[in-house]
Amino acid sequence: MSENNRKIISPIPVRTWRGLGVNHAFLEEQDIKLKPYHRQIFEKRNSIDEFGIVTELTEKQNQEAHFIDKQYKGLDQNILEQCIKEYNTGVYIEAQEGTSRQEPIILHYTLDKENNTLIDNNLIIAKENSEITVIIQYDSKVKGYHNGLTRIFGKKGSRIKLVKVQTLSDDSTHLDAVYTKLEDNAEIEYTLIELGAKNGIIHNQSDLIGTNSRTNLKMAYITDKDRKIDMNYIMNHVGRETNSQIDVKGALLDEADKIFRGTIDLRKGAVKAKGKEEEYTILLSDKVRNRSVPILLCTEHEVEGQHAASTGKVDENKLFYLMSRGLSEYEAKKLIVEASLNPIIDQIPDELIREEINDYVRRKFINE
Amino acid sequence: MENIKDTIKELERGVYDIINEDRYRYKSQKGLTKEIILDISHKKNEPEWMTNFRLKSLETYQNIEMPTWGPSLEELDMDNIVTYVQPDTKLNGNWEEVPEEIKDTFDKLGIPKAERESLAGVGAQYDSEVVYHSIREDLVKQGVIYTDMESALRDYEDIIKEYFMTLVPPNDHKFVALHGAVWSGGSFVYVPEGVEVEIPLQSYFRLNSPGAGQFEHTLIIVDKNAKLHFIEGCSAPKYNVTNLHAGCVELFVKEGAYLRYSTIENWSRNMLNLNTKRAVVEKKGTIEWVSGSFGSKISMLYPMSILKGEGARSEFTGITFAGKGQILDTGTKVVHAAPYTYSTINTKSISKSGGEAIYRGSVRVAKNAHHSKSTISCESLMLDDLSRADTIPVLDIMNDEVEIGHEAKIGKISDDTIFYLMTRGISEEEAKAMIVRGFAEPIAKELPLEYAVEMNNLIKLELEGSIG
User: Fold this and answer.
1) pLDDT tens by residue, B238-247
2) Which of B306, B391, B414 has the most A C-beta neighbours within 10 Å, making it the best mutation to test the interface with A?
3) 3-state secondary structure at position A25
4) Which of A34-48, A62-76, B363-377 has the lowest mean pLDDT?
5) Which residues of chain A are within 8 Å of residue B398 when distances are taken between CB atoms?
6) At residue A342, what are phi and psi to the nearest 5 degrees?
7) Which residues form the SUF system FeS cluster assembly SufBD core domain (chain A) (predicted)?
8) How far, in Å, CA of A87 to CA of A184, rounded?
9) Domain limits of chain A?
10) Which of B62, B152, B389, B446 is most enclosed, with most CB atoms within 10 A?
11) Side-chain-side CA neighbours of residue A291 (13 Å)
């Protein structure tokens, strides 16, 4: 589908009034020349050890990702197909049954002059009762195009931590889809940091199929200038006693445009399921646009679902206090935004990456 | 504790289901054509501008697509809807002159009794036309106008021309366009500057004719610093054919004025209720909506408040009860279009026996609406796992000097609470009913007493089916 030169992608599970512009995300049509991507993404190439496997994704592994829901379209059929059929890099990670890998696996995708088109296809399989942490970083110094897909299969009793940090350049396109399927007692914790890109369109679908499977999604963003960010998070509760939580915090500056769309779908049979979403937005300019669509769908009565969204200006009292202590207005605002986002950033189990993020946030405020 | 299973029975809707013989003086052809529109307009002796307005709306209707969201309206076949049914009576100012059968229906619904006891004026519409209208003498002396729309178009043509469908233009959506083409009946109220109408006015809409549509238009202007409470009630007996209600309510709340608009809607379960209500509120004015949705097969109803003047306020209090076979897609829209505007939304929905209750809302804060505040709270109660409760709100904020808070909850009746009440000697049925009444209580207390009683009776009726 297209509307003028804009492609309509990433629909919400149920539509509402068209005039509000929240039924879809919009992507400017652009000519993407598919090019190879040559950079090394992780430290040890093709390692196999007692904890499992970390290799470049092979075509065989790519084809075998059958666990994925047949209905799954990611952001859009074409964008998904680009990742599955035309990916120019990707990683396969497997956590061995019953193992617990303490060191996070870090995948670092950088866009540079020679490699400014990134189509990554990552597959993470956590076998029964395994534990694994994966950090995926996207950054760039040049204008680039990123379209990524990460498919995750949490088998029985597995525990997965996925950290994604995006600091692409302010003129890059960032399309990102994560699909997770969880079996009985499997759990995934997401820590998602979105700071860069001109147009960031993010999709996350978690299918809580197994009994007592759990997701916990924490997301932090700062969007400034005339940049756009669109989130579409979908938690499908299918199994009994499933639990999901979405917690999104962010700050909007300048003429930023943000849409948060979060759906908790408590389906019939998901007895004793609990879903909760919370969103808090700090507004730092009167030219921003802040849209939120926190959807609850429910066809099972033995459930608890709730959402809360709030929006407001930086607390005047806090600001006044900090400024009375000699901080400039912007420094004070920076401090307040940092204080709000840090609980999420602190979840990242890598000090170096935390430092990088903090530097990046600081620079955003110095530029003003 | 074992989950409480609900059993479903067909409900007795008592007085609401009284069917009168379909007696009419005139009934339009089924379907929708230019000829039918011209026919309606001529029957009503309308001025030419209104005839043209209808024809233009018809054109708009034919060019607008069906909504791309919400419940499916597949079963709506406009070729089989009768758009105009003139009851076999004239407009009466004296209750005794209303034909026996019609009077009897309204008597059973308690309309004249309510008028005697607690209302300042009453209008009663039967099918497409208003059959009874009355207003207290003292209000007339103060310049308050309360009359049916046809009379208003004749007696106050300039005012109608100035306001009619300006707030809800026919190109807004398909069913408003339809309304513009075939509207009939409804009420016109004008409250002059500074006049406070202490006792509510009420219009009651009754659709008796099978396979018909009701398209009443309500236009209320509350002038500067004036005050009004208006109550709207709706019902119809059940037939096996689809009836359609596509009314339109336009409320103009002037500077410093106050309007409360209360509705208890109990259309029969074959009704598609596609009603449009909108208020525009000037500086320091207040609109309060109290909305109870119990009936109809499908409802799509989202009263909208446009806070146009600085310091304007809106408050929406709604309850929706969706039973077997019902899809009630209800909610509200607010536009903060001026600084220092305030809105509060408080909704509750209950779904049972396969009913679907959907809250759909939007709150928009325009660029200039600094220092605006909005508080939104939506709660849903699921009584079984056959039903559906969805919450689909949108917040769209374009200013940083705002405070917006939104909360929603979905849940079931806690087994622990029922168990506790049962240990206190209360039966399971009564315990459940108590909890539902408690859930609805914040809404009930916003209603005038007799309506609160009616709502409690409706809840009781609805629950008897499931608990008995």
Assistant:
1) 666 778 899 9
2) B391
3) strand
4) A34-48
5) 288-290
6) -55, -40
7) 111-339
8) 31
9) 2-314
10) B389
11) 22
Candidates B410, B416, B466: best to mutate against A (most CBs of A within 10 A) is: B410
Contacts of B194 (CB under 8 A, 6+ apart): B223, B224, B225, B226
> What is the torsional sign of CA A50, A51, A55, A58?
positive
pLDDT band at B211 (very low <50, low <70, confident <90, very high): confident
| B 277-316 residues with CB < 8 A to A | none
What are the extents of the domains in chain B? 14-301, 414-468
Provide, rounded to the nearest whole percent, the portion of chain B with pLDDT above 70.
90
How many A/B residue pairs have CB atoms within 8 Å? 138
Q: What number is the ipTM of this complex?
A: 0.90
Closest partner residue to A302 among B380, B405, B412, by Cβ? B412
Local confidence band at B1 (pLDDT 50, 70, 90 cut-offs): very low
pLDDT of residue B468: 30
A137 Cβ contact partners less than 8 Å away, ≥ 6 residues apart? A106, A107, A108, A109, A164, A165, A166, A167, A353
Distance CA B164, CA B235 (A): 25
Q: Which residue of B380, B384, B400 is in closest CB contact with A313?
A: B400
Nearest to A286 among B387, B401, B404 (CB): B401
How high is the pLDDT of residue B238? Answer: 66
Is beta strand B313-322 parallel, antiparallel or unpaired with respect to B129-135? Answer: unpaired
Q: What is the pTM of this model?
A: 0.90
Inter-residue contact B350 to B318 (CB < 8 Å):
no
Whether B253 shows a pLDDT value over 90: the answer reads yes
Under 8 Å between Cβ of A10 and A205: no
The more confidently predicted of residues B18 and B305 is B305
Q: What are phi and psi of B229, to 5 degrees?
A: -120, 120
- Which of A88, A106, A115 shows the shortest CA–CA distance to A351? A106
Question: Using one digit for the tens of pLDDT, what is the confidence trace for A340-356?
Answer: 899 999 999 999 999 99
Q: Which residue of B has its CA nearest to A253?
A: B400
The CA distance from A136 to B110, in Å, is 68
